[in-house]
Write a structure and sequence with these properties.
It contains 12 helices and 7 strands. The protein is of the alpha/beta class. It has a single domain, classed as 3-Layer(aba) Sandwich (Rossmann fold). Strands 3-2-1-4-5-7-6 form a 7-stranded mixed β-sheet. The longest helix is centred in the first third of the chain and has 14 residues.
Amino acid sequence: MSSEAQRFQSTVPFYSRYRLGYPARLIERVIASTGLRAGDAVLDLGTGPGLLAVPFARAGMSVTAADPEPNMLAAAAEAARTAGVTLTLWPGGSNELTSAMGPYQLVTMGRSFHWMDRATTLERLDRIVAPDGALALFGDQHTRTAENRWREVVQEVADRYGRDRDAALIERKSPDYRSHESYLLASRFNMLEAISIIIRKPITIEEIIGRALSMSTCSPAKLGSRIDAFEADLRSALAGSGDLTEIANLIALIARRS
Protein backbone atom coordinates (compact mmCIF):
# COMPACT_ATOMS: atom_id res chain seq x y z
CA MET A 1 0.00 0.00 0.00
CA SER A 2 1.03 3.58 -0.56
CA SER A 3 1.69 5.80 2.45
CA GLU A 4 -1.51 7.70 1.67
CA ALA A 5 -3.55 4.50 1.81
CA GLN A 6 -1.94 3.59 5.11
CA ARG A 7 -2.94 6.95 6.61
CA PHE A 8 -6.52 5.66 6.84
CA GLN A 9 -5.96 2.14 8.18
CA SER A 10 -6.95 3.03 11.74
CA THR A 11 -9.76 5.41 10.77
CA VAL A 12 -12.00 2.81 9.08
CA PRO A 13 -14.57 2.20 11.86
CA PHE A 14 -14.83 5.93 12.58
CA TYR A 15 -15.01 6.90 8.91
CA SER A 16 -17.82 4.43 8.26
CA ARG A 17 -19.88 5.60 11.22
CA TYR A 18 -19.19 9.30 11.62
CA ARG A 19 -18.31 10.89 8.28
CA LEU A 20 -21.14 12.77 6.62
CA GLY A 21 -22.95 10.69 4.04
CA TYR A 22 -24.26 12.20 0.82
CA PRO A 23 -27.98 13.08 0.67
CA ALA A 24 -30.13 11.01 -1.67
CA ARG A 25 -31.21 14.27 -3.35
CA LEU A 26 -27.60 15.01 -4.27
CA ILE A 27 -27.07 11.56 -5.78
CA GLU A 28 -30.34 11.87 -7.72
CA ARG A 29 -29.37 15.26 -9.13
CA VAL A 30 -25.95 14.01 -10.22
CA ILE A 31 -27.55 11.02 -11.94
CA ALA A 32 -29.99 13.31 -13.74
CA SER A 33 -27.31 15.83 -14.71
CA THR A 34 -24.95 13.20 -16.12
CA GLY A 35 -27.72 11.24 -17.84
CA LEU A 36 -26.91 7.97 -16.12
CA ARG A 37 -29.17 5.00 -16.79
CA ALA A 38 -29.62 1.76 -14.92
CA GLY A 39 -26.74 -0.59 -15.68
CA ASP A 40 -24.25 2.15 -16.59
CA ALA A 41 -20.69 1.54 -15.40
CA VAL A 42 -19.53 3.73 -12.52
CA LEU A 43 -16.07 3.72 -10.94
CA ASP A 44 -15.91 5.03 -7.37
CA LEU A 45 -12.21 5.86 -6.98
CA GLY A 46 -11.10 6.00 -3.36
CA THR A 47 -14.37 4.49 -2.26
CA GLY A 48 -13.57 4.30 1.45
CA PRO A 49 -16.48 2.53 3.18
CA GLY A 50 -18.70 2.95 0.13
CA LEU A 51 -20.41 6.23 0.95
CA LEU A 52 -20.88 6.83 -2.80
CA ALA A 53 -20.57 3.34 -4.23
CA VAL A 54 -23.55 1.98 -2.31
CA PRO A 55 -26.00 4.79 -3.23
CA PHE A 56 -25.07 4.57 -6.91
CA ALA A 57 -25.46 0.79 -6.83
CA ARG A 58 -28.81 1.24 -5.11
CA ALA A 59 -29.82 3.52 -7.99
CA GLY A 60 -29.17 0.66 -10.40
CA MET A 61 -25.66 1.39 -11.64
CA SER A 62 -22.94 -1.22 -12.16
CA VAL A 63 -20.41 0.07 -9.62
CA THR A 64 -16.74 -0.76 -9.22
CA ALA A 65 -15.56 0.32 -5.77
CA ALA A 66 -11.81 0.98 -5.78
CA ASP A 67 -9.55 1.61 -2.79
CA PRO A 68 -5.93 0.70 -2.01
CA GLU A 69 -6.74 0.21 1.70
CA PRO A 70 -8.04 -3.37 2.24
CA ASN A 71 -9.95 -2.49 5.41
CA MET A 72 -11.81 0.26 3.58
CA LEU A 73 -12.80 -2.19 0.83
CA ALA A 74 -14.00 -4.63 3.50
CA ALA A 75 -16.12 -1.87 5.02
CA ALA A 76 -17.56 -1.05 1.58
CA ALA A 77 -18.38 -4.73 1.04
CA GLU A 78 -20.17 -4.89 4.40
CA ALA A 79 -22.11 -1.71 3.60
CA ALA A 80 -23.17 -3.23 0.28
CA ARG A 81 -24.35 -6.42 1.98
CA THR A 82 -26.34 -4.41 4.50
CA ALA A 83 -27.92 -2.37 1.69
CA GLY A 84 -28.64 -5.46 -0.39
CA VAL A 85 -26.63 -4.29 -3.40
CA THR A 86 -23.67 -5.69 -5.32
CA LEU A 87 -20.32 -3.97 -5.82
CA THR A 88 -17.29 -5.05 -7.81
CA LEU A 89 -14.40 -4.52 -5.39
CA TRP A 90 -11.05 -3.46 -6.84
CA PRO A 91 -8.00 -3.21 -4.54
CA GLY A 92 -6.26 -0.30 -6.21
CA GLY A 93 -6.11 3.45 -6.48
CA SER A 94 -5.29 6.17 -8.98
CA ASN A 95 -1.74 4.87 -9.45
CA GLU A 96 -3.06 1.49 -10.64
CA LEU A 97 -5.48 2.78 -13.28
CA THR A 98 -4.83 1.29 -16.72
CA SER A 99 -6.21 1.99 -20.18
CA ALA A 100 -7.66 -1.54 -20.23
CA MET A 101 -10.25 -0.55 -17.64
CA GLY A 102 -13.71 0.79 -18.40
CA PRO A 103 -15.14 2.48 -20.22
CA TYR A 104 -16.97 4.14 -17.34
CA GLN A 105 -19.88 6.47 -17.81
CA LEU A 106 -19.07 8.20 -14.55
CA VAL A 107 -16.09 8.23 -12.19
CA THR A 108 -16.90 9.45 -8.69
CA MET A 109 -14.45 10.52 -6.00
CA GLY A 110 -15.58 11.36 -2.49
CA ARG A 111 -13.05 13.38 -0.47
CA SER A 112 -10.25 11.46 -2.20
CA PHE A 113 -9.00 13.50 -5.17
CA HIS A 114 -6.69 15.67 -3.04
CA TRP A 115 -4.68 12.57 -2.05
CA MET A 116 -3.86 11.79 -5.68
CA ASP A 117 -1.39 13.11 -8.21
CA ARG A 118 -4.25 15.07 -9.68
CA ALA A 119 -2.81 15.97 -13.11
CA THR A 120 -1.65 12.41 -13.78
CA THR A 121 -4.92 10.94 -12.50
CA LEU A 122 -6.94 13.12 -14.87
CA GLU A 123 -4.78 11.97 -17.80
CA ARG A 124 -5.40 8.34 -16.86
CA LEU A 125 -9.12 8.90 -16.39
CA ASP A 126 -9.33 10.45 -19.86
CA ARG A 127 -8.42 7.02 -21.25
CA ILE A 128 -11.12 5.09 -19.38
CA VAL A 129 -14.10 7.47 -19.20
CA ALA A 130 -16.60 7.07 -22.06
CA PRO A 131 -16.59 9.88 -24.66
CA ASP A 132 -19.85 11.27 -23.26
CA GLY A 133 -18.97 10.37 -19.69
CA ALA A 134 -18.08 12.57 -16.73
CA LEU A 135 -16.30 12.88 -13.41
CA ALA A 136 -18.03 13.83 -10.16
CA LEU A 137 -15.99 15.01 -7.18
CA PHE A 138 -17.98 14.91 -3.94
CA GLY A 139 -17.17 16.69 -0.73
CA ASP A 140 -18.49 18.90 2.02
CA GLN A 141 -17.93 22.46 3.16
CA HIS A 142 -18.81 24.01 6.51
CA THR A 143 -19.53 27.70 6.54
CA ARG A 144 -18.16 29.77 9.41
CA THR A 145 -21.23 30.24 11.57
CA ALA A 146 -22.09 30.05 15.25
CA GLU A 147 -23.66 26.62 14.79
CA ASN A 148 -20.35 25.22 13.52
CA ARG A 149 -18.20 26.67 16.32
CA TRP A 150 -17.55 23.10 17.52
CA ARG A 151 -15.41 22.55 14.42
CA GLU A 152 -13.04 25.29 15.54
CA VAL A 153 -12.88 23.63 18.97
CA VAL A 154 -11.92 20.32 17.33
CA GLN A 155 -9.18 22.04 15.33
CA GLU A 156 -7.85 23.87 18.40
CA VAL A 157 -7.61 20.63 20.39
CA ALA A 158 -6.24 18.62 17.45
CA ASP A 159 -3.56 21.25 16.82
CA ARG A 160 -2.26 20.66 20.35
CA TYR A 161 -1.76 17.03 19.31
CA GLY A 162 0.14 17.87 16.11
CA ARG A 163 -2.61 18.29 13.55
CA ASP A 164 -1.21 21.63 12.40
CA ARG A 165 2.17 19.98 11.69
CA ASP A 166 0.73 17.42 9.27
CA ALA A 167 2.56 17.68 5.94
CA ALA A 168 -0.57 17.23 3.83
CA LEU A 169 -2.41 19.95 5.74
CA ILE A 170 0.54 22.33 5.44
CA GLU A 171 0.64 21.70 1.69
CA ARG A 172 -3.05 22.50 1.32
CA LYS A 173 -2.59 25.78 3.19
CA SER A 174 0.30 26.84 0.97
CA PRO A 175 -0.35 29.86 -1.31
CA ASP A 176 0.93 27.69 -4.17
CA TYR A 177 -1.69 25.00 -3.60
CA ARG A 178 -4.01 24.53 -6.59
CA SER A 179 -7.69 23.79 -6.21
CA HIS A 180 -9.49 20.86 -7.83
CA GLU A 181 -11.11 23.34 -10.20
CA SER A 182 -7.67 24.55 -11.29
CA TYR A 183 -6.55 21.05 -12.24
CA LEU A 184 -9.83 20.20 -13.93
CA LEU A 185 -9.87 23.38 -16.01
CA ALA A 186 -6.35 22.53 -17.24
CA SER A 187 -7.43 18.99 -18.22
CA ARG A 188 -9.70 17.49 -20.86
CA PHE A 189 -12.49 17.56 -18.24
CA ASN A 190 -12.80 21.33 -18.31
CA MET A 191 -16.56 21.89 -18.41
CA LEU A 192 -17.53 22.26 -14.76
CA GLU A 193 -20.84 22.33 -12.94
CA ALA A 194 -21.45 22.31 -9.19
CA ILE A 195 -24.50 20.82 -7.48
CA SER A 196 -24.98 21.29 -3.76
CA ILE A 197 -27.38 20.43 -0.98
CA ILE A 198 -27.24 22.32 2.33
CA ILE A 199 -28.20 20.43 5.46
CA ARG A 200 -28.75 21.31 9.12
CA LYS A 201 -28.77 18.57 11.70
CA PRO A 202 -28.05 17.94 15.39
CA ILE A 203 -24.69 16.45 16.30
CA THR A 204 -23.56 14.95 19.61
CA ILE A 205 -20.21 15.15 21.37
CA GLU A 206 -19.73 11.42 20.72
CA GLU A 207 -20.28 12.00 17.01
CA ILE A 208 -17.83 14.91 17.01
CA ILE A 209 -15.15 12.78 18.68
CA GLY A 210 -15.80 10.00 16.17
CA ARG A 211 -15.61 12.48 13.29
CA ALA A 212 -12.28 13.76 14.59
CA LEU A 213 -10.85 10.24 14.83
CA SER A 214 -11.93 9.57 11.24
CA MET A 215 -9.50 12.24 10.02
CA SER A 216 -6.01 11.18 8.98
CA THR A 217 -4.57 14.22 10.76
CA CYS A 218 -5.66 12.90 14.17
CA SER A 219 -6.29 9.22 13.53
CA PRO A 220 -5.96 6.58 16.26
CA ALA A 221 -2.69 5.44 14.68
CA LYS A 222 -1.31 8.96 14.71
CA LEU A 223 -2.43 9.68 18.28
CA GLY A 224 -1.16 6.33 19.55
CA SER A 225 -1.02 6.24 23.35
CA ARG A 226 -2.37 9.80 23.49
CA ILE A 227 -5.80 8.86 22.15
CA ASP A 228 -7.49 8.74 25.56
CA ALA A 229 -6.03 12.13 26.48
CA PHE A 230 -7.18 13.55 23.13
CA GLU A 231 -10.72 12.30 23.64
CA ALA A 232 -10.79 13.63 27.21
CA ASP A 233 -9.48 17.05 26.15
CA LEU A 234 -11.98 17.29 23.30
CA ARG A 235 -14.85 16.20 25.52
CA SER A 236 -13.84 18.79 28.12
CA ALA A 237 -13.55 21.56 25.52
CA LEU A 238 -17.05 20.79 24.22
CA ALA A 239 -18.65 20.38 27.63
CA GLY A 240 -21.29 22.94 28.44
CA SER A 241 -21.96 23.67 24.76
CA GLY A 242 -25.57 22.57 25.08
CA ASP A 243 -27.33 21.20 22.02
CA LEU A 244 -24.89 21.11 19.12
CA THR A 245 -25.77 21.66 15.47
CA GLU A 246 -24.01 21.04 12.16
CA ILE A 247 -24.62 23.07 9.02
CA ALA A 248 -22.90 21.62 5.97
CA ASN A 249 -22.91 22.07 2.23
CA LEU A 250 -22.64 18.70 0.44
CA ILE A 251 -21.23 19.33 -3.02
CA ALA A 252 -20.77 17.42 -6.26
CA LEU A 253 -18.41 19.05 -8.76
CA ILE A 254 -19.20 17.53 -12.16
CA ALA A 255 -16.57 17.72 -14.89
CA ARG A 256 -17.11 16.88 -18.56
CA ARG A 257 -14.95 17.17 -21.63
CA SER A 258 -15.49 20.24 -23.79
